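Two folds, back to back.
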Amino acid sequence: MSDVYIDVNERLIWSRKKLHRKRMIVFALGTVAAVVVVLLADSPLERWGFAAAGAVFFAFCFYDIYKMMEPNSALVELLPQGIIYRVTSEDFIVPWNEIKGVDTIDIHTNFGRRAEFYQGVTVILVSKLFYDRVVHEDSIIMRGPGWGAWFVPRDDNTMQLALHHDVIPANADEIKRQVEARWKVFGNKN
């Protein structure tokens, strides 16, 4: 750990810009690919189908631009009361006294048919009871494809909630340092 002073009472906001920038690249490439296929398609049905796909990708690009420019578009916030997550369909707060520990793990998950690997991700440990009561979403559709990258079971009684440095505008060491410092002050270490 570093000897850098951390004001644990300071509200720390990690924005969505890094996440939206990454998604915008994918949506822009999807738009370009759809336009190319429309231009090369032989049948009107293919043209209409890929034109619709291109329009959807194009709309998502503009949605991400809008979300990037939105003031205070936080993905994660650290407060004296806890950590606010805005990674699901509903925002939720994890109070410091619900956190059982802070750790670093490697996350292996599937995104569709593609395997994803995230190395050195900071996670907070919470009870399975807290996760089931506050975080868990029964609907696979509402969970979305990235759920397994954010919420990782550790054992039967513990869940790990990820703070990805790939989408948060801070490096892994900084995220862990900021979270651990606040947890040591505000958390219940019983």
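---
second:
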Amino acid sequence: MSEVPIARKKPDQRVGPFLLVDELPGGGLARIFRARYAPQPGEPLLPLADDDIAVLKVLRDGAMRDPRQMNSFTREAELLSMVDHPCVVRGLTRGVTAGRIWTALEYVEGCDLGQVLRVARAEQLRLRPEVALVVALDLLAGVAAAQSIVDPRGRPLGFIHRDVSPRNVIVDQHGQTRLTDFGSALLSVREEPAGEIVGTPGYMAPEQARGEQLTQGVDVYAAGILLFELLTSRRAFELEHLPDSRVLAVHADSARAPWPDGVDVPLDLRQLVDQATAFAPEDRPADAASFYALVEGLCAEPDDARERLALVVRDIVATDPDRLPPLFAA
């Protein structure tokens, strides 16, 4: 009689103080995982409880062989560690395990702003102005926090995100909006863009698409574009049918789409969006903090608006056919 083979439990995959749970879709330079915090004796403790979920980004093999890509990955982790604000996804820690470079981020249960906009367009709906304003205020607070980071001597670094776009803005199930992904950031007092054009089509400022010297006003422009789209449920630039060779030219030479007829947006809010998305950078608020100060007075009841937004996000999460399965029990 042959012996019945004994089923053996697959060993846990450990990265630093984390146990991998499952892999998330997407990711460019890195594979992205959900992981449980499970520190071993003697490891430095993080501001997490045992079994808390974090996001782990593990640099891919190909990127590890490219010094520029590896530098971009480690630099993002460093920048995230310098920002402590509820409207920015927190960097928790980073390290190297078995030759793998990784960084751990706060896990946010919710959806990105791209999902909110897609649902609104599909249903021919748009956010109420007060709800769109809450998104904008949280986003601008997060961008302002990043733009204010300083070096060890207290000197501003001139942080420019360069990719404030729907996929890099997450809204959690409590209606809190958070900025993420610092992989494209530029520190204007230290670095030159070297002629490279970085950004997401549809959200690049004209000077960004032309490869010119950038200021923090490019992030203001992108935030203004997002606010326009939330208020109108329309794209600010129609790029779908354009060849790739024309996309940058549209941004470089064209203004944002006009306000559509029949969209009821208060005049003072329209004027602020127009100012933020002005074609010339000198006509915009200089930075996110300046734009925040202008927008803040227009939002009368932010707590009520944030709860309305939370309902929208929870509904999207609950009905998303591509939603990841729930985390299995520990």
